């Protein structure tokens, strides 16, 4: 299904070739790598497999201010000066993110950087050369004079290129994406020469090994073209050449201490994994993935998951925490839950009924229409099953989804989460043991119309021993179809509460979903307040097929 048209941008003010956009002052939060509610812990397995039971190849994104003791100054320390970033984008250029204007994408990135650290200040300009505005031009030059990073996106106009070359000589870090090959890249004050002018980023000549690692990481992340990775690119540059970003420390292997822990505590699990064809293939596959390429990581796990692989990760990660990590659930952005449903104040029972959704009238509660994360919403045929268990007060969530393995087979996967009510009505705590690692998540019912024709659920989670925290949202409906145009304004408003733009959503393929392994345990209960008959009548009104 095609995406809805993005809302129009405010007309920017122009100045001597560059128009200034607004500065954001949103609250900080913990940065999250792409992660999803049904995902397995691919990155930690990658880290252990990358060791190859030795320390010759360690995943490490360098931070120039690391101390010998391993202590790292946090990026949100009050005494730290701000990190000043200027983004210059080609006027009217469109991004690969559902053709959203690059200006809008970078403005949104500026806002999301503030979730990481209030001290990250990025101002966005466009290279509009149609007008001359001395005041704005002075503002731009002033920002460039004190900028730590200049990010150039989609600038190919030669007059703009000449202006940038004349006014950016003092900036130590310049990164250019999808722009004129005449523009230069700099990292830490050193030029990074491009060997292949056709590449969207840069080459790798005459630079240190640490800079090569940064170049590779940023290049690969940018080419994935999603909002998480665009922000990640900037954070990697900050971490390597300005000051450490504490949330990136979990991407670094601990070397011999990790290896010692693994061998001492999990020798039999390691041996069993190496002797098992599927487990061995999983580790080999993960070893070829970038630690931040979640598409690659998850496909490896989904293709080769097995009891042996689960035992390996359960021992190395969950039981002994050989990576020494301790991620926590992000507190921001704070997303308020819906407060009313069908004209009455929302209560815990009705909130649970909203999750249960269409189960009873249909064989599932909801089907996922789209989600924020392309790494996981690329997988087709996603079903959600919410139900009350046999035990008093118990509530469960089981996502069912399809994966195309590396051998080209289509397989079904299913997970099981325990769900508990949060203190605030409409919020819930989820927990799951997924391939040997526990993930804890905080879910919020952001909105759902009275006819339950769609719903938007936000989540923030963490896999503590994997060192990863993450946030996201899923848009659901009874038939997997996008809400109609009449609902668009309400949907966009709900997305705004989550800090998500509509062009960030990745549509799930729900076309060929034969024989999903659905069903819930015998003796389970469904709705408490909402009646199934009401659901059936509403289903006829909105065109949901009878089952």
TrEMBL record:
GO biological process: xanthophyll cycle
Domain of life: Eukaryota
Segments forming domain VDE lipocalin: 260-510
Pfam families: VDE
Sample GO molecular function, one term: violaxanthin de-epoxidase activity
InterPro entries in UniProt: Calycin, VDE, VDE_dom
Coiled-coil annotated spans: none
Protein's name in the database: VDE lipocalin domain-containing protein
Species the sequence originates in: Cannabis sativa (Hemp)
Organism ancestry: Eukaryota, Viridiplantae, Streptophyta, Embryophyta, Tracheophyta
